[in-house]
Amino acid sequence: MKPKTAIKREPPKGSRFSSENQPKNRGRKKKSSLDDILQDLLETPDSKGETELEKILKAHIKVAKSGGIKSAELILERYYGKPVQSIATTIQSETPTPQVVLYLPVKEGETIGGNSEAN
Description:
The protein is mainly α. Helices cover 30% and strands 0% of the residues. The chain has three helices and no strands. The longest helix is centred in the middle third of the chain and has 14 residues, at 52-65.
């Protein structure tokens, strides 16, 4: 039986390295993420020097001053942070709360912390 030999072939001309697809370029170009696009849109000033973000905030403040609860809530939570929510529980039961006891195997002369007794 004859041993198989590898045949070296050139890649098709259409898939070879082009001027854009060079080893130094490290793969595909990264697409702009939605965050980058949104940041560009919100931070680009108009002819008056005012950004879209400033316009949105001014509109929310105007609505909040006229009684808009959602706008006021949004502004206050963004500025001061969301309030801490606590849950008060009052459970009154005649049956005691079950407690879990774990029995761990311990070698003779060994404590639970893993240290042997110094006696």
